[in-house]
Amino acid sequence: MTERPSPSWDASRRSEREQPPLPPARFAYDRQTWKEIAHLLANLPLALLGFTYVAVVLFTGALLTLTVIGFPLLAAGLVGARQLGKMERARARALLSVEVAEPSPLPLRGGKDGFFPQLWMALKDPVGWRTILYDFIRLPWGILTFVIALTSLFVLWPVLPFIARGLTNADRAMVRGLLSPSDELERRIAELESDRGVVVDTAAADLRRIERDLHDGAQARLVNLAMGLGLAKEKLLEDPDAAASMVQEAHGEVKLALQELRDLARGIHPAVLTDRGLDAALSSVASRCTVPVKVTADLPSRPAAAIEGIAYFTVSELLQNISKHSGAKSASVDVWRSDDRLLIQVWDDGRGGARLGNGGTSRSDSVEGGGGRREGGTGMRGLADRLEAVDGLFVIESPQGGPTTVTAELPWRDRTAGQG
To answer: Quick check: is 7 in a domain?
Structure first.
């Protein structure tokens, strides 16, 4: 069993370290000084390139917004501005020793969210607009720094290191101020807006599943029950024995229909979860697993009902995966709260090989090994999408030969008064 991860176990959630102070000026023609001079001399051609791009994008995009291609063109220009920003950050790292992390990519899903939501996301991209502003103000600055640096090479040689350091410190400040990643809240808002599509798709799929289960299961049995009781009614006087047999069969159909309805209700939201909480619900689902499962829940209180439900169904699907495909002899489920997060860890000693993949590839979808190759199922990718849609995380460690450890993280929200 692996150790429990800390709340900051995912590197993507760590905040940016504070930038070091700007370097002081000094008399020295060392390697860094020559890099700074090269940066100042390159400012003019790159500023001309950036300003020309911005002027074309803004002018053409604004002019054509009266037509159907204006806004898509402007959105494409903002996406292109991101590439200019990437180039400037690379130049700052190479010549100014400024370490600026790359912004998170736009959370576009290749058309899954529809054309207009993705267009709107690109149009309001703060990273693209800040890069546009950076390239717009760089032209006068580029001309100024180029002229000063070139002139100083011939007439102000003794103090050029001071001049270069002062001017490049202003460059460093602009890069950090305008080309740094968006703050965490801004990034999360963009991701969560994109993930709304996943929530809608998941809800629609669940509704279709419930409709299918009702139609093919309980509804079909109830139709057969009604037909059987109708025939029994007709034979009640002329053939009581046959009628009694039909009633007996109908009684069996009622029991099966009730069981299917209970299973369906459990799949929607199990009563044990509502009445007794996550610990009891997970123990119940673990008891139905074909592999012995040890459940440990360390929760000082109950989270919000929605978080409980997501945690329950995540563990339920993972245990089904273990039952069907892992070849494990034992498994465990640990659930605990750490600060404002609900952490879940599901472990098994099976054959391993579980993974996230494009379109839902996982151990339950595609397994090479003693059990052969299996296809189908929504898999780990579907679980990861569901958790990401509610600001959660999902990580798999599953080398070939095992063991497999799946760690999930959900935001903790307290259960409000009147719930449970």
So the answer is: no
